[in-house]
Amino acid sequence: MTDAMRDEGLTLAQFAVLMSVLEADGQTQTEIGAIFAMPAWQISRALDGLQEAGLIERRTCEQSRRVHRVHATEAAWARVPQLQCVVTTVNEQMLAPLDPEKRAVLGGLLRDLVI
To answer: What pTM does this model have?
Structure first.
């Protein structure tokens, strides 16, 4: 996935953060950091790269000028189909050695871990 995202001009951290922003637009940097248990500097660096690429905007929060909310841009939304295609391709390559039954078991185990 790291190589595939590099081909898309993103680091793996930037991709993860971008997906989070697309899923829940308007989060703060702190909220995003809590999701990934990443240090603030790492989230900030990922957001800086996404902002430079025109994929996110940081907007000052109405309640506190020191807080910025992170919003996906139209350019980010336009990239979603391509990024989904990349993820599907990588997942298929990774799961290729497993038969459908083993894939189902793995999927169930991963869901149990996440939920």
So the answer is: 0.85
